[in-house]
Input
Amino acid sequence: MSAVSRRWTPPPLIANRVLRYVIYGGVALYLVVAFGTVELNWARMSEGVVRAGRLFAGFLQPDFTSRWDDIQAGLLESLTMTVTSTIVGIILSVPFGIGAARNIAPLPIYAFCRAFIAVARSLQEVIIAIFLVVLFGFGPFAGFLTLAFATIGFLAKLLAEDIEDIDPAPLEAIRATGAGWWQVLVYAVLPQVAPRLIGLSMYRVDINFRESAVVGIVGAGGIGATLNTAMDRYEFDSAAAILLIIIGIVLACEYASGFIRAKVQ
Amino acid sequence: MLVIENLTKRYATGDLALEMVTLSVPAGQVVGLIGPSGAGKSSLIRCVNRLVEPSEGTIRLGDLDLSRLSRGALGQARRRMGMIFQEYALVDRLSVMENVLSGRLGYVGFWRSFFRRFPQADIDRAFAVLDRVGLTDHVDKRADALSGGQRQRVGIARALVQEPDLLLVDEPTASLDPKTSRQIMRLIVELCAERNLAAIVNIHDVALAQMFVQRIVGLRKGKVVFDGPPDGLTPEVLTEIYGAEDWTATIRKAEEEDEQAAAAGAPVILARDTPLVTA
Amino acid sequence: MPVSIAHDGTKLWQRRTSRAEWLHYAGWFALLLLFVFTWQVMTRDTIWAFVLDAPRQAADIGSRMWPPRWSYMSAVWKPLWDTINMATLGTLLAIVLAVPLAFLTARNTTPSARFVRPVGLLIIVSSRSINAIIWALVLVTILGPGVLAGILAIALRSIGFIAKLLYEAIEEINIEPVEAIRATGASPQQVLAWGIWPQITPAFAGISVFRWDINIREATVLGLVGAGGIGVNLESSLNTLAWPQVTLLLLVILGTVVVSEWVSAKIRHAII
Output
């Protein structure tokens, strides 16, 4: 063979030349325009740096004591909301999840459950909280309903997908023995989906606690309201204390859920 | 070329994987390393290029004392040793060409290699080895789109493109079928002869080792218990290395398999008339 | 699955031992007690009159909310654009910061398992614990209302999410190709770029697009605390009890979320 050098360059990510330029060009254009629309008020920002410094100092010396009553009340609301909404949510998500599984639910029930789940999942929790506060009044009851509703949407969808994905063989086998619908559910379906359901439920406890801190901003109870007040008053050290508490509880939840999941598996 | 003296490896668990192993491999010689699982074969190979740190002993590659090198100098020394793995160890999502070029990473700076702007000389080397192992048609295919034998050939090409002085081969045929195993072993031995490379080849299949290598070293529990030509592997020696077994039957069966393969229109000898590109 | 012998010699089978059975029921009972207790505490101040009045309220609001005020749409385009930007730019910023964080936190790539990794884990937990809207609340107080607060809020929340999933992917890589690259004499940076990065690219792309989709949803409500986007319109419409406008905004939000979910699913499908 002659010593002609063969050139090589890596093949481009997008093969089609036109498509490649359109996409890269579009992305570049978008970034330029998007950055342009972000208004930076430098005066406000330099003030902001000062405030950020105060917040940071607040983290180093968080104030748990001066607003302790408010913090305690808010925390209690958040925790009780988390517990009740997760329990109710898990219980109710089971029938909805089963009803939304194509392979075991009849069509009208399937349609209804799927629709319900879709609504529960599409709307942001805060928006649901706003409406429930209007309907049910201020306080943790509205928050409880919000989180339970969101929990159902989250768990039921995943449960339904799990059920639809199960190994059909045990299902057929149990059906072939002449078992009724309920028995098929308990013996063939549940054992396959239960471990993951437990893991997801633990994850949802974590999410619900974090959300319980959020819905307080719109009046649905929880520590979010306390935080909102602290920020309004520029009490950065109390605010830092609240944020640290939230982080601490989420950490504890994570450890606990890891522990429980390990035991269940 | 490679001189190993009193190599000892003790793992943190207390296992003594290698004990006072002394071995010397001249250029151009292919050594087959045999022994039962846990005998220390893998540890020995990995101690040479210090993927595993030796506990005691010295390893010399030519004039260079590998065991005393700093991190940076070790990187440079590793360029001279090509390693071939049992499970091919290719980066699955990269193409064949990129996998082969990764053998030149020790020679090319970070940013040049990141943007795949290798010097033309390296590209030429890569094409040359790909031609030699017969994979020119697969240059831009993803590595995981190839068969086992093809992937191992990419692994061989990656080791060769480094232009090494030594090949460290860790069970190259363990994941391959018998026919492909023979092709790969034949390829490795031919390449070593062509380029005057020293090589240590870890093999679990004794019959395969006997067929292809010039010298066999047997390890048992970290110690060298045999060092000689392939026909020195009598059943007594094999018993000492592996333990009691019907060795005569194993050896006869292997000879038969080889005759059958030869009769059935033996594996194709890969293209040999491609001149080596020297930089 | 214990088997036991009854006093007349027949073999009995129970699903669990008696002790395990007892513990099982005790566990459920404890859970029930917990629920009852927390329910009582939570609803201590609940005004049940309001709760019972809810259906009537719902009907009332419902009638005021329909039909939606379509003409309001013209005022919605710019805030919608802001919302999408907040989500996208926030996600991009988070990606830039989360990738090095993930490498510093993964067990197999961290420079120091004793010092750097715990710090990385702490940063990730802190970022994850605080929802975007709370970050937004804090940032609006510091930086003032506007899109910048929203972008940073989204970014701060997303860093933890992306970094956590990414470091889990890094810890699961196949070690052999990494060994092989190291054996060629490559520098540690090259080992990262050639041995590790190609193995996690699909995970990285999937995680990023997934988070972007979630962030679109989060960005729609950040305006409620002043951080720009369509939430600002929602806040003002609610304050002025302009219910038909609220309905329109909800429809717009719903539509945006549906579209972004579709786009995200398509892209993730193409990556696999």
